[in-house]
Amino acid sequence: MFGYGDRVSYDTEALRNIYPQKSLWRRWNSLSRFQKNLISLTMVGVFVCVFIFVSMDMSSGLPGVNMANRLPDWRDQNILDLSYPNASNKFLGPLGPPVVGFNKDESVKRGDIRPLSREEEEEQIRVGEIPQKKEDQVVSKPKKLMFSGPKNEKQEAVVSAFRHAWKGYSEYAWGHDHLKPVSRTYNDWFTLKLTMIDSLDTIYIMGLNEEFDKAKAHLQSEFRLDINKDVNVFETTIRVMGGLLSAYHLSGDEFFLEKALDLGNRLMPAFNTAWGVPWADINLNTLKPHPPSWNSDSTTSEVTTIQLELRDLTRCTGINTFENAGAKVSEHIHTLQKKDGLVPIFISPMNGEFRKHSTITLGARGDSYYEYLLKQWIQTGMTVDYLKEDYIDSVSGMVKHLFKRSGPSGYLFVGELASGGSDFRPKMDHLVCFLPGTLALGTLFGMPQEHLRLAEELIHTCYKTYAIQPTGLAPEITHFNLQKDADSDFVVKSNDAHNLLRPETIEGLWYMYYVTKNTTYQDWAWEIFQAFEKYTKVTHGYTSIGNVKSTTQTKPLDKMESFFLGETLKYLYLIFADNGVEGPLDLNKFVFNTEAHPLPIYNS
Ligand SMILES: *[C@@H]1O[C@H](CO)[C@@H](O)[C@H](O)[C@H]1NC(C)=O
Ligand SMILES: *[C@@H]1O[C@H](CO)[C@@H](O)[C@H](O)[C@H]1NC(C)=O
Question: 511 alpha carbon to ligand 1 midpoint, in Å?
């Protein structure tokens, strides 16, 4: 076994200076016969020992060095005690020096890596050990919250839709990641039961107690995290850790926290880089992190959209490692140079720098960086000033560089800057429609009223991207015309005409209704819900469609994304609650993660 905690430095130059070289052969010849025999015997002995050790490891059922098996089994533990099994109180992360050298072309040199300070070295080593709860740490324990189910016809209609989706999932994809409702089968992306876990809190909030208990029972017997699969750190954090933590906060059931903690430990090795910027992917069994196959860099929004979940895990367990790992990324990115608060979409885990000439966008790979600046600030009781300042700067940057009006109607929309920020493109992903919701949320916490005016205009534009289409459903990407005399404001290319049942516009409508109480937002949400019912509902669930531009050729894509149940239907249910507030889910007490999982707001 290698001592993974040891930090061995191979400075061969220095070694040569200390030990002048002498040929091995000459040294061997200068030894006495007894010395030669002793050395030979020792070497044979060492060889035999190593052989025995390795075969024992195999025979105990471990495929070679199976790091994950060294993880403690939480099931036997009283989780709130958080005492770790002492027999093996370490697990193997990719420890020692920061992980380097994933680039096959070796173009990244070791010298690019900044040497670690002493403090950071200690922190790095800590990342690989089973973290300990500090004695004086206050751990927040949730009380079980009660929800009484739908209170009006619209909420009932949304619950029926959820039941319909859940029935298809239960029958044809139970325990798998995604339902394929047309072919009546399933698809596994990470093999982490994504739809089930993403749905837990929606089920709970809708008051579907039987369904909740059934899902929980399944998870208790079948949910394993030590699967030999490469998963995306961000997706796994927002969907699985976020889903488990919110299920814990709502139901008070410690089982969910146990699982979140197991997952947290398995994700930590990805953060073992020079600047703490995590690798995009990690294998949950071998605990080996790596970049995705198509890219050596990590995605900016991914590395900055894990902090709410990691902080909450720390606050629930008293183990600081998780919050620290997340905060380190945010603090590092805070120090990097930006374009009026706007960030490029790629960042290197090797040297901690943004990739030059990468796009600036509020859409894919940029979006939730901005969202989590605000939401982290809210989660920490508005006590972390740099988050607020960076958020305000970024909104100014958006207004300056990304917001434009379309022709002929003058809709406000959010474009992109390509080529490192010089080339404006009037292209807006549906994902960008998270922005009005975030802007509106900020105004509940004292952000300028100007943000709400921007949000009002943007949510109107997002709504229009639905209303203008024959199906009443928005495409994945809309292009805008900039000429005042254009025929239409919107241009949709056929490659972009799909709808994946995404939540962002419904999410924005909920925040807008919650903040303004203007019932127009409920009306718009109802219209969109009707369009989902009409064009995406199939016998065994709901399906993404390939074409929103035709009512007869919608081209079902045979996939029901987990976020349809986790987010879209949840936000629809919430917007039809009186004043948009469902039971105890008050936005002064809870902040929703980017996958719509509510987490508590803390004082600091
Ligand atoms: C582990 O800790 C428990 C209680 O603290 C103790 O009784 C037990 O002997 C320890 N086991 C080992 C292997 O050290
Ligand atoms: C509600 O919002 C709609 C859409 O933005 C707007 O036209 C209407 O004037 C608003 N109603 C009130 C009472 O503010």
Answer: 51
User: Encoding tokens for residue 97?
Assistant: 């020096």
Spatial distance between the Cα atoms of 340 and 518, rounded to a whole number of angstroms: 33
The CA 86 to ligand 1 mean position distance, Å, reads 6
Per-residue model confidence as pLDDT tens digits over 206-247: 999 999 999 999 999 999 999 999 999 999 999 999 999 999
Active site residues: 235, 367, 476, 504
Ligand 2 pocket test: pick from 453, 454, 520 the residue with the most ligand atoms within 8 Å of its Cβ.
520
Let me know: does 415 contact 394? Beta carbons within 8 Å. Answer: no
Residue 86 CA, closest ligand 1 atom number: 1
The dihedrals phi and psi of 339, each to the nearest 5 degrees, come to -100, 95
Who contacts 483 (Cβ-Cβ below 8 Å, separation ≥6)? 407
Query: What is the pLDDT of the chain when averaged over all its residues?
Result: 86
SS3 string, 70-94, reads: HCCCHHHCCCCCCCCCCCCCECCCC
SS3 297: coil
Calpha distance 511→581 (Å, rounded):
10
Tell if the pTM clears 0.90, that is, is over it: no
Token pair 């979140």 in the structure block, residue: 260
| DSSP 8-state symbol, 433 | G
Residues 256-310: tens digit of each pLDDT: 999 999 999 999 999 999 999 999 999 999 999 999 888 889 999 999 999 999 9
Pairing of strands 403-405, 412-414: antiparallel
Ligand 2 pocket, Cβ-based, cut-off 6 angstroms: 456, 460, 518, 520
For ligand 1, pick from 77, 81, 83, 86 the residue to mutate: most ligand atoms within 8 Å of CB: 86
**15-19, 138-142, 418-422, 455-459 — which is least confidently predicted?**
15-19
Q: Which atom of ligand 2 lies nearest, measured to the CA of 516?
A: 14
Q: Is 529 helix (H, G, I), strand (E, B) or coil?
A: helix
Go through the domains of the chain in sequence order and give each one's CATH number. 153-600 (1.50.10.10)
Question: Counting ligands in written order, which one lies closest to the CA of residue 522?
Answer: 2
Peptide bond into 408 cis (omega under 30): yes
Q: How far is the CA of 128 from the centre of ligand 1 (A)?
A: 22
Per-residue CA distances from 532 to 7, 34, 540, 541 (Å): 56, 86, 14, 11
- 594 annotated binding-site participant: yes
Instruction: Please tell me the chain's helix, strand, coil percentages from 3-state DSSP, rounded to the nearest 5.
Output: 50, 10, 40
Q: Tokens representing 34?
A: 């007894």
CA of 84 to the centre of ligand 1 (A): 10
Q: Kindly report the number of other CB atoms within 10 A of residue 371's CB atom.
A: 23
**CA-CA distances (angstroms) from residue 595 to 201, 385, 441, 513?**
11, 25, 16, 19
